[in-house]
Amino acid sequence: MKFTAQQIAGILEGDIEGNPDVEVSKLSKIEEGTKGSLTFLANPKYTSYIYSTKASITIVNKTFEPEHDISTTLIKVDDAYKSFSQLLEYYNQVKNNKVGIEQPSFKSESASHGENVYLGAFSYLGDNVTLGDNVKIYPHAYIGDNVTIGNNTTIFSGVKLYSETEVGNNCIINSGAIIGADGFGFTPDENGEFKKIPQTGNVIIEDNVDIGSATTIDRATLGSTIIRKGVKLDNQIQIAHNVEIGEHTVIAAQTGIAGSTKVGKNCLIGGQVGVAGHLTIGNNVKVQAQTGIGHRVKDGEKLYGSPAIDYGNYVKSYVHFKNLPELVKKINDLEKKVDANN
User: Fold this and answer.
1) Which of 68, 113, 241, 320 is catalytic?
2) For 277-302, how does the pLDDT look when each residue is reduced to its tens digit (9 = 90+)?
3) Are residues 202 and 268 in the same domain?
4) Do 68 and 180 lie in a common domain?
5) In the 3-class helix/strand/coil scheme, how is the chain assigned residue by residue?
6) What is the pLDDT of residues 3-50, one digit of tens each?
7) Same domain flag for 165 and 297
8) 295 flagged as catalytic
9) 197 and 302 part of one domain
10) pLDDT of amino acid 31
């Protein structure tokens, strides 16, 4: 897709300085700009690059006044960074504005959908599936029986939504995510063999949730595994059966949360965090990367380490961790002196 400076200025309500008809078809960093690319200048540290960039169009703040000759066409806006982000969102909407049903694909006779739906090739819609308006189902996605998907939700290629899963409005589920697989439930019998416990619940994903690639969310044993509205999950996260993630919580990659744990609202959880099962994590909790949590966490706590301790205490303790060999040597030397004087 190509856009002229005039079109971009219209979208951003900006002013043009330069050629209004110059076209761009790609995006670039300002220091790596090439002919036909669009870039932006928001950080003053990068101002020098605007005089050498080969980018055809550069978005800048209205306060910017060049001190030397420039070759790039300027689009002046109130906030260059915000406007560039707005343009990325617009571009993404145009790029992903697919509609229609491609073949071959399978749609059960009992499945239904709203307006402007896209169903990609080799995708599968099971019995009694319900899709809202503007839903995008990309190729090779599997939508199991009795699944419901709300308006304006996008399901990318290779996603698997097991039966009974409920997905809200304005959600994005990225490639390879698996939602609603059986939870890890087994019980030993009298012979010590593990027998599978039937997982009869489902997964509920509320509105405005983003789920990263290869993330897995297990169905509940009974009831529901619930991802509340506004939650953002990175790639390669494991959410076990009957877990509940509170509103607007953000979790980074490779974190695992064991069964029946409840995570509160507005939490920030770093990468590779491990959370044991049947715990309660409060609201507004911040957890540093690679932390291991095996106990209940109160509202507002900041945690680090494994097993997790208060973040401030961990940082203070780490000073001593590093000096431990020297401290041990000093203690040994003191003990020798005490023994020599006795």
Assistant:
1) 241
2) 999 999 999 999 999 999 999 999 99
3) yes
4) no
5) CCEEHHHHHHHHCCEEECCCCCEECEECCHHHCCCCEEEECCCHHHHHHHHCCCCCEEEEECCCCCCCCCCCEEEEECCHHHHHHHHHHHHHHHHCCCCEECCCCEECCCCEECCCCEECCCCEECCCCEECCCCEECCCCEECCCCEECCCCEECCCCEECCCCEECCCCEECCCCEEEECCCCEEECCCCCEEECCCCCEEEECCCCEECCCCEEECCCCCEEEECCCCEECCCCEECCCCEECCCCEECCCCEECCCCEECCCCEECCCCEECCCCEECCCCEECCCCEECCCECCCCEEECCCCEEHHHHHHHHHHHHHHHHHHHHHHHHHHHHHHHC
6) 999 999 999 999 999 999 999 999 999 999 999 999 999 999 999 999
7) yes
8) no
9) yes
10) 95
